Automatic annotation (TrEMBL):
Free-text function comment from the UniProt entry: Part of a membrane-bound complex that couples electron transfer with translocation of ions across the membrane.
Modified positions (FMN phosphoryl threonine) in chain numbering: 177
Protein's UniProt name: Ion-translocating oxidoreductase complex subunit D
Assigned protein family: Belongs to the NqrB/RnfD family.
Transmembrane regions listed in the UniProt entry: 20-41, 47-64, 71-89, 95-113, 125-144, 206-223, 230-248, 260-277, 289-306
Main location as per UniProt: membrane
Keyword flag Translocase: yes
Cofactor(s) the protein needs: FMN
Gene: rsxD
Stored InterPro entries: NqrB/RnfD, RnfD_bac
Domain of life: Bacteria
Enzyme Commission no: 7.-.-.-
Subunit structure as annotated in this protein's UniProt entry: The complex is composed of six subunits: RnfA, RnfB, RnfC, RnfD, RnfE and RnfG.
Alphabetized UniProt keyword annotations: Cell inner membrane, Cell membrane, Electron transport, Flavoprotein, FMN, Membrane, Phosphoprotein, Translocase, Transmembrane, Transmembrane helix, Transport
Length: 343
């Protein structure tokens, strides 16, 4: 009897990478819509410009490497990186900031290591850290919530002109984020902080509460579609909430904020479902993903509360990207047919 000789993998889904990337982009849309509603059109301009830069840089490097440009552009990975960078950067970031960050993510963090699947660090987060260290003023100029700047919110065309320096900046459209205010106002209790600063909403930042809910909805959609497993996001959110609960003293001037505050402020849900779930730079085994996610949650709280950077996700993710290979080594599941502890 003759058997068909074929190498693994025996199961194959055409364009599976492209399909997954499209799902990720689709899942970001609720968060982008809510960001636009509360903070104006700057995020949309960021995403559109970052997409142009990402696809152009990818095509250029693929041509230099003599790789099929159309084939690799079609996988959608460059477009996903552009979306993540566009969302992560301040809404009215200058055009050159988006250009430098996106080009660094594609050329240095991705293609320099061999392309998708070979990069040891998350490209979007590596680019974010480089920009934050190099251009701290531009990276901390976040848009004020629309509710606090009635009548001065730029239209889509005006947002485009602002980002590309074609018109003077609007007065009063930027302000410190709730995480910045929390870090700088150590002399006030939580109640006093909420009363003195309009940036705060019910439990988190004004607008940011709904932004996090929207990214949570997108993340749950990706879980439903089985783009990734629940292990890393749930472990990260649980560890962050647990750390906040342990060190929350009821709201004194030394308080780091309640668990609900940390879960609904900043980039928490965006990072939990769209950043740390990157299959290339995170741990591989299910146990390893739990460890990976939990350690990111712990690092986020430590840096937010006692470090110099308010949101902390980019640094936490990059540190754990370093540790992911070691986590994989110590968390490998038992080989089928072998007893626990067997070599």
């Amino acid at each position: 009897m003759a058997f068909l000789k074929a190498s693994s993998p025996h199961g194959h889904a055409a364009n599976s990478t492209n399909q997954f990337m499209r799902l990720v982009i689709l899942a970001t849309l609720p968060g982008v819509a809510v960001l636009t509603y509360f903070f104006g059109f700057g995020t949309l301009v960021n995403i559109l410009w970052a997409s142009v830069v990402a696809l152009s840089c990818e095509a250029l490097i693929l041509s230099i490497r003599k790789r099929p440009v159309g084939f690799y552009l079609n996988d959608g990975s460059a477009l996903v990186t552009a979306f993540l960078i566009g969302i992560a950067l301040p809404p009215y970031a200058p055009w050159w900031l988006v250009l430098v960050g996106t080009a660094f993510a594609i050329v240095i963090c991705k293609q320099l290591y061999g392309g998708m699947g070979y990069n040891p660090f998350n490209p979007a987060m590596a680019a974010y850290v480089v920009l934050l260290i190099s251009f701290p003023v531009q990276m901390t100029s976040w848009a004020a919530p629309v509710a606090l700047v009635d009548g001065t919110v730029p239209t889509l065309i005006e947002a485009f002109k602002l980002n590309f320096g074609l018109m003077p900046a609007f007065d009063g459209i930027t302000m410190a984020t709730p995480l910045d205010v929390m870090k700088q106002s150590k002399g006030l209790s939580i109640d006093e902080l909420w009363a003195a600063n309009p940036q705060f909403g019910h439990v988190g930042g004004l607008g940011w509460e709904w932004v996090n809910i929207a990214f949570l909805a997108g993340g749950l959609y990706l879980l439903y579609k089985k783009v990734f497993t629940w292990h890393a996001p749930v472990a990260m959110l649980s560890a962050l909430a647990l750390m906040a609960a342990i060190f929350y003293d009821g709201g004194s001037s030394n308080s780091g904020g309640s668990p609900l505050y940390h879960l609904t402020t900043g980039a928490t849900m965006f990072a939990a479902f769209f950043i740390i779930t990157d299959p290339v730079t995170s741990a591989v085994s299910l146990r390893g993903r739990v460890i990976y996610g939990a350690l990111i949650g712990i690092l986020v709280y430590i840096i937010r509360t006692w470090g110099n950077y308010p949101d902390a996700f980019a640094f936490s993710v990059l540190l754990m990207n370093f540790a992911a290979p070691f986590i994989d080594t110590v968390s490998q599941p038992r080989t089928y047919g072998h007893n626990k502890g067997a070599k």
